[in-house]
């Protein structure tokens, strides 16, 4: 039987743009162009490599997001994924990570899977908790933050690089993995890939298709709430220390004051 | 009527731009042509844009070339993307057996083509001896058009000697066509040669506009940082005006180039004139950009250490390539007004 890989991806505001919150303190998606989260490109790349190694594999990219989020799916399809699932519902506006993990888990179960591949975090929310939540919801092992990943004999193995040590991890399929930005640069879509992507299937689902109640998601259903947000203060000029023999001491005193040493 | 690239072509151009932003930094440009980058461009389809699908290419037209060449110009990529397209157009006029191998290799990125197609100057290669060919220093295939004759020279069989050019990134070399052995040149139809020349002019025009935009961005950033008399020089109106004029020239040239590609792809009767217009507008805009950006940078602008110089040299070389602005302006005039009267006899 073929290896069914689901890659969960996020459509995020361009990190190089000028990002803001909207009035209800959710991400303002209108002001900045959106794209496939760069960290999720690594997940797509690893999924493609796993699929190339496997005899028979099928990659489904999955996203939860507004209409424009189809762009992220298109990009992943043009890189080589086989099909896409887009969960879109007005009630999803303002959903937090916990709610998103519920929607993704239901959609993944709907699609069917042997392996779920995620990026290490989104470039907008940067929480990095979703893979773990997803594994919990699906009731399968999680192997997160891998910089190398392989699937062999019904097992997923990989290397997680920490500050002090590298761990070799493995889990029985089905499982959820997340890959880091050290896992290998994502490929660029070719023109043929872009053209082929137009013919690939994109399934649209809403909450009722997944059997999710509206109050389980959205701002109302969120377990976390943003109370207030402030613009990052403009960078100040900083302190200039002129060395008159005491420069080293002054520098040390500054670092100590800032609790760096 | 939509002149711009299709949505797919635009998405493709963005991909090429993203690839070059990572793989073709100013440091890479200084290192010159890179076969690895050529192969990566080939994987996306850039080198086979105009190669037919039968030979592994994409079978696209000048519209796609414009989108991609502009991305190349922006990054100042040394790789001969426009030449690959012109080579495909020329080889399409050569009998299948001889052309197929090279078309396949071009599309696959295993071969690099350099093209000499005199536009403007004398139609011949100047008789026996060497002709300068851009990109010949690292090409696998050199195509030299001499009148209606096309020399298809594998680089291995040709006598090629690198020479100093305005832009070291363009791999200029002398190719001695008089010593060519092997197969005789192919007789091309005049139409094939003419259209290949237009394609080169359109591609170079797009390349120039990409370069002009890159220089403008670089210079706007510089003007915001460089202080004089206690203020950023970009806050002075005289500097703002210089750069605003560059932007206007580039923006006005852009649709002219798109129009030329459209006319080319649709075989309109005005295709030749439109291609000439494109090269005139793009060369003038890029020349203005080069001059103004150098002016705003001041003397640092032409030092080796400053990235601006990479684009300056590219623009100087490209303005003259595929017929300069004066040649194409005369071509437009001739098309509109008829041939220029012969000078009176003394």
Automatic annotation (TrEMBL), chain A:
<dbReference type="InterPro" id="IPR012255">
    <property type="entry name" value="ETF_b"/>
</dbReference>
<feature type="domain" description="Electron transfer flavoprotein alpha/beta-subunit N-terminal">
    <location>
        <begin position="24"/>
        <end position="214"/>
    </location>
</feature>
<comment type="function">
    <text>The electron transfer flavoprotein serves as a specific electron acceptor for other dehydrogenases. It transfers the electrons to the main respiratory chain via ETF-ubiquinone oxidoreductase (ETF dehydrogenase).</text>
</comment>
<dbReference type="Pfam" id="PF01012">
    <property type="entry name" value="ETF"/>
</dbReference>
<dbReference type="InterPro" id="IPR014730">
    <property type="entry name" value="ETF_a/b_N"/>
</dbReference>
<comment type="similarity">
    <text>Belongs to the ETF beta-subunit/FixA family.</text>
</comment>
<keyword id="KW-0249">Electron transport</keyword>
<dbReference type="InterPro" id="IPR033948">
    <property type="entry name" value="ETF_beta_N"/>
</dbReference>
<keyword id="KW-0813">Transport</keyword>
<protein>
    <recommendedName>
        <fullName>Electron transfer flavoprotein subunit beta</fullName>
    </recommendedName>
</protein>
<dbReference type="InterPro" id="IPR014729">
    <property type="entry name" value="Rossmann-like_a/b/a_fold"/>
</dbReference>
<comment type="subunit">
    <text>Heterodimer of an alpha and a beta subunit.</text>
</comment>
UniProtKB/TrEMBL annotation, chain B:
<dbReference type="Pfam" id="PF02771">
    <property type="entry name" value="Acyl-CoA_dh_N"/>
</dbReference>
<protein>
    <submittedName>
        <fullName>Acyl-CoA dehydrogenase</fullName>
    </submittedName>
</protein>
<dbReference type="InterPro" id="IPR013786">
    <property type="entry name" value="AcylCoA_DH/ox_N"/>
</dbReference>
<keyword id="KW-0560">Oxidoreductase</keyword>
<feature type="domain" description="Acyl-CoA dehydrogenase/oxidase N-terminal">
    <location>
        <begin position="6"/>
        <end position="109"/>
    </location>
</feature>
<dbReference type="InterPro" id="IPR036250">
    <property type="entry name" value="AcylCo_DH-like_C"/>
</dbReference>
<keyword id="KW-0285">Flavoprotein</keyword>
<keyword id="KW-0274">FAD</keyword>
<dbReference type="InterPro" id="IPR009075">
    <property type="entry name" value="AcylCo_DH/oxidase_C"/>
</dbReference>
<dbReference type="InterPro" id="IPR009100">
    <property type="entry name" value="AcylCoA_DH/oxidase_NM_dom_sf"/>
</dbReference>
<dbReference type="Pfam" id="PF00441">
    <property type="entry name" value="Acyl-CoA_dh_1"/>
</dbReference>
<comment type="similarity">
    <text>Belongs to the acyl-CoA dehydrogenase family.</text>
</comment>
<feature type="domain" description="Acyl-CoA dehydrogenase/oxidase C-terminal">
    <location>
        <begin position="202"/>
        <end position="336"/>
    </location>
</feature>
<dbReference type="InterPro" id="IPR037069">
    <property type="entry name" value="AcylCoA_DH/ox_N_sf"/>
</dbReference>
């Amino acid at each position: 039987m073929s290896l069914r890989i689901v890659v969960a991806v996020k459509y995020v505001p361009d990190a190089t743009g000028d990002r803001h919150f909207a009035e209800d303190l959710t991400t303002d998606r209108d002001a900045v162009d959106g794209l496939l989260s760069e960290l999720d490109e690594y997940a797509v790349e690893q999924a493609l490599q796993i699929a190339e190694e496997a005899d028979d594999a099928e990659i489904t990219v999955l996203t939860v997001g507004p209409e424009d989020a189809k762009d992220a799916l298109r990009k992943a399809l043009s890189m080589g994924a086989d099909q896409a699932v887009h969960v879109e519902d007005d009630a999803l506006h303002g959903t937090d990570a916990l709610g998103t993990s519920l929607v993704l888990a239901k959609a993944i179960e709907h699609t069917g899977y042997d392996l779920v591949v995620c990026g290490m975090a989104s470039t907008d929310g940067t929480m990095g908790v979703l893979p773990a939540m997803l594994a919990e919801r699906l009731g399968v092992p999680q192997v997160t933050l891998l910089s190398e990943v392989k699937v062999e004999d019904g097992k997923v193995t990989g290397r997680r690089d920490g500050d002090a040590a590298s761990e070799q991890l493995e889990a029985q399929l089905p499982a959820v993995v997340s890959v880091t930005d050290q896992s290998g640069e994502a490929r660029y879509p070719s023109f043929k890939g872009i053209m082929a992507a137009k013919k690939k299937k994109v399934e649209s689902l809403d909450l009722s298709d997944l059997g999710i109640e509206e109050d389980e998601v959205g701002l109302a259903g969120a377990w976390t709430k943003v109370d207030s947000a402030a613009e990052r203060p403009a960078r100040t000029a900083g302190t200039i220390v002129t060395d008159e023999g005491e420069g080293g001491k002054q520098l040390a005193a500054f670092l100590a004051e800032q609790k760096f040493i | 009527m939509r002149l711009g690239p299709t949505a797919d072509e635009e998405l493709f151009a963005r991909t090429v731009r993203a690839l070059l932003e990572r793989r073709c930094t100013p440091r890479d440009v200084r290192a010159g042509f890179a076969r690895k980058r050529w192969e990566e461009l080939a994987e996306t389809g850039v080198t086979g844009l105009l190669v037919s699908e039968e030979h592994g290419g994409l079978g696209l037209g000048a519209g796609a070339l414009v989108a991609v060449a502009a991305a190349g110009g922006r990054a100042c990529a040394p790789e001969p993307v426009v030449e690959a397209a012109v080579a495909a157009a020329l080889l399409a006029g050569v009998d299948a057996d001889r052309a197929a191998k090279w078309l396949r290799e071009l599309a696959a990125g295993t071969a690099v083509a350099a093209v000499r197609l005199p536009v403007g100057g004398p139609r011949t290669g100047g008789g026996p001896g060497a002709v300068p060919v851009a990109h010949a220093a690292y090409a696998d295939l050199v195509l030299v058009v001499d009148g209606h004759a096309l020399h298809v020279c594998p680089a291995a069989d040709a006598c090629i000697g690198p020479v100093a050019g305005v832009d070291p990134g363009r791999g200029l070399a002398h190719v001695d066509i008089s010593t060519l052995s092997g197969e005789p040149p192919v007789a091309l139809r005049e139409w094939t040669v003419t259209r290949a020349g237009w394609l080169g002019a359109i591609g170079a025009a797009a390349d120039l506009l990409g370069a002009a935009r890159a220089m403008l961005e670089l210079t706007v950033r510089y003007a915001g940082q460089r202080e004089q008399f206690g203020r950023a020089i970009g806050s002075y109106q005289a500097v703002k005006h210089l750069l605003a004029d560059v932007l206007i020239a580039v923006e006005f040239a852009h649709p002219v180039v798109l129009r030329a590609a459209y006319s080319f792809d649709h075989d309109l009767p005005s295709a030749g004139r439109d291609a000439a217009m494109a090269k005139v507008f793009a060369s003038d805009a890029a020349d203005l950009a080069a001059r103004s950006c150098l002016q705003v940078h001041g003397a640092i602008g032409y030092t080796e250490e400053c990235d601006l110089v990479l684009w300056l040299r590219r623009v100087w070389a490209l303005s003259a390539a595929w017929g300069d602005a004066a040649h194409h302006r005369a071509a437009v005039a001739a098309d509109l007004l008829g041939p220029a009267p012969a000078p009176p006899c003394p």
